[in-house]
Amino acid sequence: MGAMALATKGSDVSAPPRLTAVVTDLDGVLCDTETVLVSAINRFLAEESQEPLTYDEARTMTGFDNDSWWRGVGQFRPSLNTPLDEYTHRVDMIARTLFPTELVVADGAIELVAAIHQTGVPFALATSARAAWAGQRLEIMGISDAFDQVLTADDVSAHKPNPEIYLKATQALGVDPAETLAIEDSPSGIRAARDAGLYTIAIRTHWMRDVDQTYAHVIVDSLRDIDLDALLAGGD
Q1: What CA–CA distance (Å, rounded) separates 200 from 184?
Q2: Between β-strands 31-32 and 104-105, what pairing exists: parallel, antiparallel or unpaired?
Q3: Contact present, 103 and 33 (Cβ < 8 Å)
């Protein structure tokens, strides 16, 4: 893969430490889940005679867990009084019908996952999605068996930006967070990974346009910009 395009503002562009493991986010990094999720939410809102979320409204919630999306939708549509359980069930049912045909895999995602898997380094997924949602997306993408560990919203008591999921991921892999690469996109995910002590790369997707990602060590425009060989050999 090509050389990394380093961020120029606010990021630590010094050479990374020796990295011996990888933990990646799912939504927004390996696939564009947000577009499908917003479509599902807007179908739900139409059923409730509510105006659809705008692109800019949806962007403020990128990287949120399910409960936070529910709260965010409620803030933007204050006349909506649907309880969390009902909202979750209905949006889930709509989204599950959309994902098989509308999920867009990120450019370079399959190749990067395969390359990491082939290196044999410990490899985990750390996602704010619930297990059922994450499992469906991994199956659609054909990468269900690529990870040594998969941690979801169901495995933690505190969601991103809390670092719990990254601390649990590195613990499950039996690796030092300081020697682990994290791949993220949203500010909440970036903060969770870096506060857990991981060397963090942020992907600048269209959902992250004009969003501050500078808490990451490095920002790249595409997964194809990640020089995996250099990162896993760093410090040698």
Answers
A1: 7
A2: antiparallel
A3: yes
- 8-state DSSP, 126: E
Q: Among 47, 91, 45, 46, which residue's Cα sits nearest to residue 66?
A: 91
Q: Which two tokens stand for residue 160?
A: 């991103």
pLDDT tens for the chain, 236 residues long, are: 333 443 333 345 455 778 999 999 999 999 999 899 999 999 999 999 999 999 999 988 887 777 889 999 999 999 999 999 999 899 999 999 999 999 999 999 999 999 999 999 999 999 999 999 899 999 999 999 999 999 999 999 999 999 999 999 999 999 999 999 999 999 999 999 999 999 999 999 988 888 899 999 999 999 999 998 888 865 44
The helix or strand, by DSSP H or E, that contains position 92, with its residue range, turns out to be helix 84-102
Cα–Cα distance for residue pair 32/102, rounded to 1 Å: 9
**Is 206 exposed, middle or buried, given 0-12, 13-18 or 19+ CB atoms closer than 10 A?**
exposed
Architecture category of domain 21-32+105-233 in CATH: 3-Layer(aba) Sandwich (3.40)
Report the SS3 class of residue 155: helix
The residue type at 10: G
Run of H or E including 150: strand 149-151
The number of residues in the chain equals 236
> Are 111 and 222 a contacting pair, CB within 8 Å?
no
Put simply, whether the predicted model's pTM sits higher than 0.85 gets the answer: yes
